[in-house]
Every structure is written in structure tokens, then in C-alpha cells.
Design brief:
Blueprint: H1 3-7, H2 12-21, E1 25-30, E2 35-40, H3 43-49, H4 67-80, E3 86-90, E4 98-107, E5 118-125, H5 127-163, E6 169-171, E7 178-181, H6 183-188
């Protein structure tokens, strides 16, 4: 049986609970895209950032680069009832953007009367994902820094090893075989062993 038949007679209170349970943040919009209500169980959002969005057009609550996405979602919802998900960023007083992944749904109404149409933008809070991505990037950058420090140390060691006037042998502790010999060692041992690397000490 289609969900419309099963859920078609929901009362407003049940519909509100359904909206709240299905997203981290939901915006109830009129036919023009003005935010009528913000539904969230995040106290910081409902009392702070998102509380100031009521009565404003959705596109006025997002960053400049997100405005086209808002316009596209409203146009798509008008045409096809539900839209694909898009990340939209809201500026905050703290300076860091609030990233939300939205999918917008049209609530049936008379298309010819904007005042009767409603949209619901269901949003998923991406802050945990963004924080995880940031930590991953920081870990990768730290690994790259460590790698290049190792490479620089290895280069300095190679230069010293190759130019040292004293004979230097590097011997494997278990097999007692020579694994590296610098030019000075090869010159000193040339008559005894023409090939030092791989030879037993």
C-alpha cells in the first residue's frame, strides 16, 4: 500500500513529530521560500543560530556560494515533489559555517496560490563529518611532514656515509652480513673482498 494512503490523514502534531524525528534540522517554508518554522532538537540551534532564520527567505540564511543550491532545490521541489540532497552552508556568529545536507520536499497545495504551498527542507547536520574530515586531513599533513623530515635526514645520512674518509660498514645483526659499505670501506677491503655488500663479516 502506498505511503500516501497510510499517512495521508496525519494530524499536524504527528506530522511535526515525524519531521523532527527524520532529520537533525528541518525548515518549514512557504511557497516563496520564506522560513515559517525551524524544527530541531538541538537546543543550541533552536535557541541561537536557527532561531534568527524565522521570517527570512531561506537563501538569505546561507552563504553566497550556497544560494544557487537553495534556488535549485526550491525549483526542483516545485516540479518533482522531492529533491536530491545538497550541502548548504549557513554562516554563524562564531565564524565557522554550519554545514547542512538538505533534501527538500513539496507539501501538496495549490500551485497557483503560493500562500497555500509549503516545502519542508530536511537537513542532516554535517558538523561531525566535517570535523572527522578535518582531523583526517591534519593527520595526513602530519604524516607528510614526518615523511619529508625522514627523507631529509636520510639524505643527510647518505651524504655523510658516502663522503666519510673512514671506512664504514653496516652489518645485519642476525646474519652478520654486510648490508652497506661506503666508498672508503670498499677501497680498503678491495683486495680482500671485491664485493663487500652481502659478504659475511
Amino acid at each position: 500500500m502506498p505511503a500516501r494512503k497510510l499517512l495521508g490523514d496525519l494530524d499536524a502534531r504527528t506530522a511535526s513529530r515525524l519531521i523532527e524525528a527524520s532529520s537533525d534540522l528541518a525548515l518549514v517554508l512557504d511557497g516563496e521560500g520564506t522560513i515559517l518554522e525551524v524544527v530541531t532538537d538541538d537546543a543550541a540551534l533552536s535557541d541561537g543560530t536557527a532561531a534568527a532564520w524565522r521570517g527570512r527567505h531561506w537563501s538569505d540564511t546561507v552563504t553566497i556560494e550556497s544560494r544557487d543550491k537553495v534556488a535549485q532545490m526550491l525549483a526542483e521541489a516545485e516540479a518533482v515533489v522531492a529533491t536530491r540532497r545538497r550541502q548548504v552552508n549557513h554562516p554563524t556568529a562564531g565564524g565557522e559555517d554550519l554545514p547542512i545536507l538538505y533534501s527538500t520536499v513539496r507539501v501538496d497545495g495549490d500551485k497557483r496560490v503560493p500562500a497555500q504551498r509549503r516545502f519542508v527542507a530536511f537537513g542532516r547536520d554535517l558538523r561531525p563529518t566535517v570535523a572527522l574530515q578535518r582531523r583526517l586531513v591534519e593527520a595526513q599533513q602530519a604524516m607528510e611532514r614526518d615523511y619529508w623530515r625522514f627523507r631529509e635526514a636520510e639524505t643527510r645520512y647518505r651524504n655523510l656515509f658516502q663522503t666519510a674518509a673512514e671506512a664504514v660498514l653496516v652489518v645485519d645483526g642476525q646474519s652478520q652480513k654486510v648490508v652497506e659499505a661506503n666508498p672508503a670501506a670498499e677501497a680498503q677491503f678491495e683486495k680482500i673482498s671485491p664485493r663487500l655488500v652481502g659478504a659475511a663479516l
